[in-house]
């Protein structure tokens, strides 16, 4: 399962993930910067589309919606995922000009988390949070509040871990895989993939200024 940001819809994903081997879903928004998820067909898993989290637009069509999917396979527990790409410009603190919109979006994410927790669903929220999300960060503390009970979150790569992307150009991660207690118990490992290229100025526009993060979950068999 691969979550993508800034893809030109399903057609855009197919330039990298061929339709013969991958199933793609993208947010329902006409843009060259869609949030998408692709699933390898040979995995045996399927994706069921839930309603896009349109409130993340914050009344601005240039902002991304959340892509809400349920992953399922016969004989295994299901997993609900929310793929997102939040507004840039509020990397830390609460005073930058983009922070008002950012924290409005964060409240929407928190509502989604709270609803999944109340329903007893295992879930993961993943993508470009555009936020450092350190252990003491106000945005992190807002969503990791264990309210309702069970909304106790874990970042797949622990807060404060240095990012090796582009030879340590970045001090913190902006992309995060955030898990609930159940999906955290399924996690086997997590890390960041880095490019062989190390010259940020020469290569980032041809590759990306982000390096992808990944997590390996061992989803249990249904009792």
Overall description:
The chain has helices spanning 9-13, 99-119, 138-143, 181-186, 200-203; strands at residues 2-7, 22-26, 34-40, 46-49, 67-72, 79-85, 123-128, 154-155, 175-179, 187-192, 213-217. With 223 residues, the protein is an alpha+beta fold. A hairpin with a 6-residue loop joins strand 5 and strand 6. The radius of gyration is 17 Å and the shape is globular. The model has no long low-confidence stretch (mean pLDDT 95).
Write a brief structural summary.
By secondary structure, the chain is of the alpha+beta class.
Overall pLDDT = 95
Low-confidence stretches: none
How many extended strands? Answer: 11
Main beta sheet: 6 strands, mixed
Q: Give the spatial strand order of the biggest sheet.
A: 4-5-6-7-9-8
Taken as a percent bin, the fraction of beta residues is: 25-35%
Give me the secondary-structure topology.
Blueprint: E1 2-7, H1 9-13, E2 22-26, E3 34-40, E4 46-49, E5 67-72, E6 79-85, H2 99-119, E7 123-128, H3 138-143, E8 154-155, E9 175-179, H4 181-186, E10 187-192, H5 200-203, E11 213-217
Parallel strand pairs: 6-7
Antiparallel strand pairs: 1-3, 2-3, 4-5, 5-6, 7-9, 8-9, 10-11
């Amino acid at each position: 399962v691969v979550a993508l940001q800034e893809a030109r819809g399903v057609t855009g994903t197919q330039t990298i993930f061929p339709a013969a081997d991958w199933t793609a879903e993208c947010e329902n928004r006409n843009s060259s910067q869609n949030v998408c998820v692709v699933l390898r067909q040979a995995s045996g898993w399927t994706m069921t589309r839930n309603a896009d989290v349109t409130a993340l637009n914050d009344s601005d069509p240039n902002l991304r919606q959340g892509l809400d999917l349920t992953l399922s396979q016969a004989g295994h527990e299901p997993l609900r995922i929310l793929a997102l790409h939040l507004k840039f410009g509020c990397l830390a603190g609460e005073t930058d000009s983009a922070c008002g919109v950012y924290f409005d979006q964060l409240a929407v994410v928190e509502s989604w988390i709270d609803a999944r927790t109340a329903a007893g669903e295992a879930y993961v929220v993943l993508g470009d949070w555009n936020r450092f999300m350190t252990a003491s960060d106000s945005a992190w503390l807002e969503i990791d509040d264990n309210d309702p009970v069970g909304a106790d979150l874990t970042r797949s790569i622990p807060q404060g871990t240095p990012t090796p992307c582009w030879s340590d150009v970045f001090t913190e991660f902006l992309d995060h895989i955030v898990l609930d207690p159940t999906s955290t118990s399924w996690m086997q490992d997590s890390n960041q993939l880095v490019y062989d290229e190390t010259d940020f100025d020469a290569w980032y526009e041809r590759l990306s200024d982000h390096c992808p993060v990944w997590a390996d979950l061992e989803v249990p068999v249904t009792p």
